[in-house]
Request: fold
Amino acid sequence: MTLHKAKLEKTKRHRVTRALLIVAGSLCVALGAVGIFIPILPTTPFLLLAAACYCRSSDRLYQWLMGNRWFGTYIRNYREGKGLSIKTKIIALTVLWVSISYSALFWIDILILQVVLLAVAVGVSTHIIRLPTFRKSTT
Reply:
């Protein structure tokens, strides 16, 4: 294989990898957005994974995500160990428990599935409560 041919092959692989990372990042952003409204679907891991995919594939998409009105601050605060605002914690816990309770009581008739749903709610609640509470600085 000639040097030129090898270089073309490497460029082609780079483009494919970049495209796959962009697709994966976009899928993660979509799942993270859905996770905001569906408490069983975790938002944070998907958004962090999207940031990692975009960081390695597209500076423009990474900057968009980090500057996004809903996701950017959330990702930065989480990555910096600042946690979640008290408002976000309350909303997340309320939506979590209302949706899980409703599902367990009115949609699921199998006791073991009801127990699993409640166990998931307890696990997610524990995680949310243990995260630091972010407070905006007043300075």
In short: The CA atoms of residues 83 and 132 lie 4 Å apart. Residues 83-139 form one domain.
